[in-house]
Amino acid sequence: MARDPRSAFNRFMDTSLDELLAPGESGDGLPEVLALLGRAAEGVPAYGAMLKAAKLSAADIHDAADFARLPLLNKENYVRRFPLEALVEGGDLAACDFFAVSSGSTGEPTVWPRGLHHEFPIAVRFEQVLRDSFRAHERRTLAVVCFALGSWVGGMYTTSCLRWLAAKGYPLLIVTPGNKIDEILRVVKRLAPDFEQTVLLGYPPFLKEVVDAGRLDKIAWGKLNVRLVTAGEVFSETWRDLVLERLEQDEGLNSIASLYGTADAGVLGNETALSVAIRRFLSEKPEAAKALFGEERLPTLCQYDPTSRYFEVVEGGTLAFSGDNGAPLIRYHIADQGGVYSFEAMRAKLADYQFDAETAVAQAGLRARRQPFVYVFGRANFTLSFFGANIFPETISLALEKPSLRGWTTGKFVMEVKEGLAERPRFTVAVELADKENADPTRIELAEREILETLLTHNSEYANYVSKEDQRPVVTLWSKGHPDYFPVGVKHRYSRR
């Protein structure tokens, strides 16, 4: 990767997407990550100190097995341990020009510096989605940034990357209403009819709110050829189908693309037509999904460029990555539960179930790239334990996506294990009502029944570990935007402890 803004800019602008992605389709990323290690060991004061404390030298690291001996980094043992200047190359913050702030979903918000040249590898992730899936190189496209704007990473980083694509020649115009639904709908109504397609970029539950609010506002989504780029949360294929239906969109493989990203290092991977085809197949084959991923629930499945972000599966089936950023990160442990598959290993696994994903993609007139796959369930700290059974937010989402519930709920919820109710712990779910919908005992009973049925069907731990008298959840219904559980304008959290 080019290390100064001018050469990085020129390389991105003058190099086709095919050329940019080719090294990651044929290589495993090890030479690139070893080169990054050498630079970090020599030029990043904090990382040099970490290696010295571990009595390791970059010169002794030659292969993947050697690399796995390096210390795992995290916020506590690395990012917050050293001064900010010590985390950047050369120990000089002047090498960067922008700060982003993490959402603070795991505690205290963290500041991340980056330079202009660090944005271009992330812009390639957006280019892959917009070109391969949305054909934005040949369609006049309106991009509506619906992430929160401010010091947080999502809105500003997304906007920057989209502008680089426009500068590269894509017929792309960007508007940034942020996470204000009335402003999003205003600009969509005013601008979208003049474009061949409109792309909304934001968090999945928020974009669903936008779509639903637009329907109430008489926006004919089907005439606008709307596509979505999402990030931040796992969603089900039922959710994808529901949103596609409400958008009057019938292209299941190339209408909604999820990004796997983090404030620490931008976008790490992205859904492709190929990964979506695989996921949609597995959503109908739970035994195959469990064989591939080891879980009954379905993870986000993305492809990634190993020459840009090098993934490893480490302790407890969690992910670590290495990549060049304002603060270069080597074996950074983000604690996301998940794993990786090479392209060939994934193809072989699917062949056991007589599924050829490449053919499915080709039949849809789309392209399959030979990149490796990363899958992610989410962070363990968003999971609750109830009588020893792990309860995942994705399972509750499945229940709320059922036809009996989805018409009067937004899909947002907060799950808790509360002590002292009926003298025993109880599993509770606070559910957000759709706009102008009311709570009543019939709806509460229906929601409790549907959530229980979904838990028993999709979570064998819950069915077997939790006694029958404790299994039924306690549901409460809350008005849209209620400040106790669903405050407006902040990133939603699906669980509380």
Structural account:
The protein has 497 residues and is α/β, with parallel strands linked by helices. Helix 3 (30-43) crosses helix 4, helix 12 crosses helix 15 (357-363) and helix 16 (393-400) crosses helix 18. It is globular. It has a six-stranded mixed sheet with strand order 4-3-5-6-7-8, sandwiched between helices. A five-stranded antiparallel sheet has the order 9-13-12-11-10. The chain contains 20 helices and 18 strands.
Summary tags:
20 helices; 497 residues; 6-stranded mixed beta sheet; 18 strands; alpha/beta
Question: Could you outline the blueprint of secondary structure elements for this entry?
Answer:
Elements: H1 5-14, H2 17-26, H3 30-43, H4 45-53, H5 64-67, H6 75-79, E1 98-101, E2 111-114, H7 120-133, E3 141-145, H8 153-168, E4 172-175, H9 181-191, E5 197-202, H10 204-216, E6 226-231, H11 237-246, E7 256-262, E8 266-270, H12 273-283, H13 286-293, E9 300-303, E10 309-314, E11 318-323, E12 329-341, H14 343-351, H15 357-363, E13 373-379, E14 384-386, E15 389-391, H16 393-400, H17 403-406, E16 409-421, E17 424-433, H18 441-458, H19 460-465, H20 468-471, E18 474-478
Parallel strand pairs: 3-4, 3-5, 5-6, 6-7, 17-18
Antiparallel strand pairs: 1-2, 7-8, 9-13, 10-11, 11-12, 12-13, 14-15, 16-17
Question: How would you concisely characterize the structure shown here?
Answer:
The chain is α/β, with parallel strands linked by helices and 497 residues long. 38% of the residues lie in helices and 22% in strands.
